[in-house]
Design brief:
The complex is a heterodimer of chains A (675) and B (192). With 675 residues, chain A is of the alpha/beta class. In chain A, 39% of the residues lie in helices and 13% in strands. Chain B has 2 domains: 60 residues, Arc Repressor Mutant, subunit A (Orthogonal Bundle), CATH 1.10.10; 90 residues, Glutaredoxin (3-Layer(aba) Sandwich), CATH 3.40.30. Chain B has 7 helices and 4 strands; from the N terminus they run H-H-H-H-E-H-H-E-E-E-H. Classes of the chains: A alpha/beta (675), B alpha+beta (192).
Chain lengths: 675, 192
């Protein structure tokens, strides 16, 4: 009944202007945009606010005579690349790149009902007025994200009005815990955190484990570089995750639970905490939930910045207040977990799948996805792709659908080279895998894994050896140090990869790297260590040529490894503006016609480019004042910081294979980062 | 350089310990609150917390040094984190990091400036990959699509802010960013 009343209240909120306040849009100024909307609406009459509508729909109805529209913040609307995003309901127009100065036009269009403001649509194209018409959303099927970006996150009344907590009510009143587990098992839901373990089985083991006290934990320690799905779900629709957690607790017989969210997501922490408090106030959390006799208390724990805590036994150690180090399994947490009690740990997105699954049943859940991997999967699409953002597609969609369909292909017309999937536990896949269906089995076969769902697209400018080094450096710094294979193995692998990217490695180093990768994979204690070699192994499998170029010719084919490149200015493109010289921290960039006597001038004659340019200079001396002469870079002074390339307005600075031979003693003196 | 730890401050510490409960599982939340308060974990605080929770100091030091969030060194007023997640990395995070360090005037090997204005860290992933490369300031302000030029300009704006308002006002919420600044307050009252 409450749900019906709230739903009616929401109806009165139309038209409604929804401003995306996901992290991406906030960084692009969404908060200013929302303030501008409130101001603009106030000019035209009282704005209708959500709180008022939900408290007293009749009053809103009366106010609507003079009021104009409602403004609501929301979680991530998905197309992060083009933020700040604004959706106008009921039509569902999606505006991109909205600035405060665009606000009056939108408000006018809303008030007068004149249709969308074309210049603010995606591609300024009237045929892309609604989200569903935009290529980015076309391959998508937003189920778990159904309300993310459309409701005010964490407002329980709005979640209720959209049918929220109906699944919990159904589970508690119409189903036994065993029936809930059977439904989840029948649906074939698999853990979305990476390994894809069947959720129903996990719940079953926890339920059957001996012990009068059990726990459930939602794992929101999303640390994979390149992944932000859990963040968006928690920031966009925290109640859905909480509802899933309560259902899980009911199913396994737990009366206490934790939400473990990484501290780097302050907004997610705040919204989930608020959601918990509200759920408690509405009798959906705490003692005797919905009069069913089932009681469940949940608490929030903030992570403290340790990637390894995404591993379940390490996460448990962290909740217990210790260093987050994994322990050998078995016993699995489902049997002996938090404070030695049976503990069921599920990922944020996994639990986000649960409410709809319970409400609509296993058969309906299986309608999308593949047999082995039913349902949808949320991916975080990032890297060198035209449109980055948050997407949800049916399991079994191909990489091509995602990267070229939703993502719109590679940025700046470059060539697709690889896609890194699954973070440091996953691998790099190539263009031959573009037709590969995204499901647990297919990816495993290709040597990668779905991981948590981060997809980072790499273009021709990325060096795969450097990417492998990057992941190894990540794993190395996050290794907890408990087991030798991971602590020492990853360190040695990092050293070898660093040697390769610096041009001091040999073929023997490559063989050693391969051998080490195999040993670490087989002998490390936990998932982090076991999967740590994956980025190396997949890049070795698909890009061996690049490794060979690094170890035999000390050459980086992609001209990306900074130690193996030189920077060069194309004299044809250079307009002599001097921005590169201004940006250079080491005084390596000079104009070719500068008179001798300046501090940098003495080095001018060195190097082939310098000499040629100097000759040209004397010939052109007379005209020097009319046409500004190009700049050149002294390779020996160059720190390889890339500042000149970034500063150049004409793309005249380019990377080429290294000109001067580097001191191969191994005592690297120049690193770009400076520390 | 470490400011003397006066008795007055221990009162606050006691509050934090009482609020979280004197159990070992409260250790991490306690240290988080302490760090929020003092912006780092002074040694005497760690031993005090150990005594209060009945833990060996080694266990508390172990935790304080294990998690990346904790620092046993004083940090600058502005903690600038340059994200080096995969997406940021392939879009030039290294060069942004270089520019930030240079603008902040950091010597090689140093993370914090002598005047405690800036701490510059390269962090693994802040989870804002769609607008890579990303820089955050004090975890609350998020800046996307950074370039070397913008990174340097950001540092200059912060420096000016520090000069104009030498005593930091914490928890200013939405109002932190200046008008022209593309700032996002991750902890502000936006959705409230």
């Amino acid at each position: 009944m409450l749900q019906a009343r709230l739903a009616r209240a929401l109806e009165t909120l139309r038209p409604r202007i929804i401003v995306c306040e996901g992290t991406g849009c906030l960084a692009k100024g969404a908060a200013d945009v929302r303030r501008a909307f409130i101001k603009e609406l106030e000019k035209r009459g009282p704005g209708i606010d959500l709180d008022l509508a939900l408290e007293d729909p009749d009053e809103v109805e009366r106010r609507r005579e003079t009021g104009v529209a409602a403004v609501t913040p929301s979680g991530c609307q998905g197309l992060c690349q083009q933020g700040p995003l604004v959706t106008v309901e009921p039509e569902g127009y999606l505006y991109v790149g909205v600035r405060p100065e665009d606000v009056p036009d939108i408000v006018q269009a809303v008030v007068e009902g004149t249709g969308p403001v074309v210049r603010l649509l995606s591609d300024r194209d009237l045929s892309q007025a609604r989200a569903a018409d935009i290529d980015f959303f076309r391959p998508q099927d937003r189920r778990v994200l159904a309300w993310c970006g459309r409701i005010r996150p964490g407002d329980i009344r709005e979640y209720l009005a959209r049918g929220g907590y109906s699944a919990l009510a159904k589970a508690l009143t119409e189903m036994t815990p065993d029936e809930v587990i059977e439904e989840v098992t029948a649906a074939g839901l698999r853990g979305r955190g990476g390994a894809g373990f069947p959720t129903g089985k996990k719940w079953r083991v926890t339920r059957d484990a001996e012990g009068d006290k059990k726990y459930v934990i939602v794992n929101g320690d999303e640390g994979d570089p390149g992944a932000f799905m859990d963040r968006c779900l928690l920031e966009g629709d925290p109640h859905r995750v909480l509802e899933g957690l309560i259902i899980a607790a009911y199913a396994v017989g737990a009366d206490e639970g934790y939400a473990y969210v990484r501290a780097e997501y302050p907004r997610a922490v705040r919204l989930l905490r608020r959601a918990m408090a509200e759920a408690e106030r509405y009798g959906l959390l705490g003692e005797d939930i919905l009069g069913s006799g089932f009681s469940f208390r949940a608490r929030l724990k903030e992570g403290a910045g340790a990637f390894v805590c995404g591993e379940e036994t390490a996460l448990i150690a962290s909740i217990e207040g210790r260093r987050g180090m994994p322990r050998p399994r078995p016993p699995f947490p489902a049997v002996r977990g938090l404070w030695d009690r049976p503990t069921c740990i599920n990922n944020v997105e996994t639990l986000g799948n649960v409410p709809d699954l319970i409400l609509c049943g296993a058969a309906a859940y299986r309608e999308v996805g593949t047999d082995g991997s039913p349902g949808t999967k949320i991916f975080a699409l990032a890297g060198q792709v035209e449109r980055t953002g948050l997407i949800e597609v049916p399991m079994g969609s191909t990489l091509r659908d995602v990267i070229f369909g939703a993502g719109g292909g590679i940025r700046g017309g470059k060539e697709f080279k690889a896609v890194q999937i699954g973070g440091p536990s996953g691998g790099c896949l190539t263009s031959e895998h573009l037709g590969l269906p995204l499901d647990y089995e297919s990816l495993k076969e290709a040597g990668a894994m779905i991981g948590s769902g981060g997809l980072v697209v790499l273009d021709e400018d990325s060096c795969m050896v450097e990417v492998a080094r990057f992941f190894m450096s990540f794993v190395q710094s996050e290794s907890c140090g408990k087991c030798v294979p991971c602590r020492e193995g990853t360190r040695r692998m990092l050293e070898l990869l660093t040697k390769m990217t610096e041009g001091t490695a040999t073929k023997a180093d490559l063989d050693l790297l391969e051998e080490l990768a195999g040993s670490v994979k087989e002998s490390a204690l936990c998932g982090l260590g076991k999967s740590a070699p994956n980025p190396v192994l997949t890049t070795l499998r698909y890009f061996r040529d690049e490794y060979l170029a690094h170890v035999t010719e000390h050459r980086c084919p992609a001209a990306a490894c900074l130690e193996l490149v030189s920077f060069e200015i194309d004299p044809e493109k250079c307009i002599g503006c001097g921005l590169c010289a201004k940006a250079c921290p080491s005084g390596a960039v000079r104009q070719v016609d500068r008179a001798d006597g300046t501090p940098d001038g003495r080095r001018r004659a060195e190097g082939a480019g310098g000499a040629g340019a100097a000759a040209k200079t004397s010939a052109a001396k007379g005209k020097a004042r009319k046409k500004r002469l190009p700049y050149t870079i002294d390779d020996e002074l160059c720190l390889r910081c890339d500042a000149c390339r970034a500063a150049c307005p004409k793309e005249a600075v380019r990377r080429v294979p290294r000109k001067t031979v580097r001191d191969r003693s191994g005592a690297a003196a120049t690193t770009a980062a400076g520390d | 350089m470490v400011p003397a730890f006066e008795g007055r401050r221990f009162e606050k510490l006691n509050d934090i310990i009482e609020r979280n409960g004197r159990t070992p599982s409260s250790l991490i939340p306690i240290l988080q609150e302490v760090q929020e308060e003092y912006r780092y974990l002074p040694e005497e605080v760690l031993t005090y917390v150990a005594t209060a929770l009945g833990l060996p100091p080694s266990a508390v030091f172990g935790v304080a040094t294990f998690y990346a969030q904790f620092s046993t060194e004083p940090k600058g007023r502005f903690v600038i984190k340059v994200c080096d997640g995969t997406a940021c990395h392939v879009r030039g995070a290294d060069t942004v990091h270089f520019a930030v360090r240079r603008a902040a005037g950091l010597e090689p090997g140093r993370k914090t400036t002598d005047d405690l204005t800036f701490t510059v860290e390269q962090v693994n992933c802040v989870g804002a990959c769609s607008m890579a490369p990303v820089v955050t300031v004090n975890d609350r302000r998020v800046y996307g699509d950074m370039t070397q030029k913008e990174a340097a300009a950001l540092v200059e704006r912060l420096r000016k802010e520090a000069e104009e308002e030498p005593v930091p006002t914490e928890g200013a919420g939405d109002g932190v960013g200046t008008a022209g600044e593309r700032a996002a307050d991750g902890a502000g009252g936006a959705a409230g």
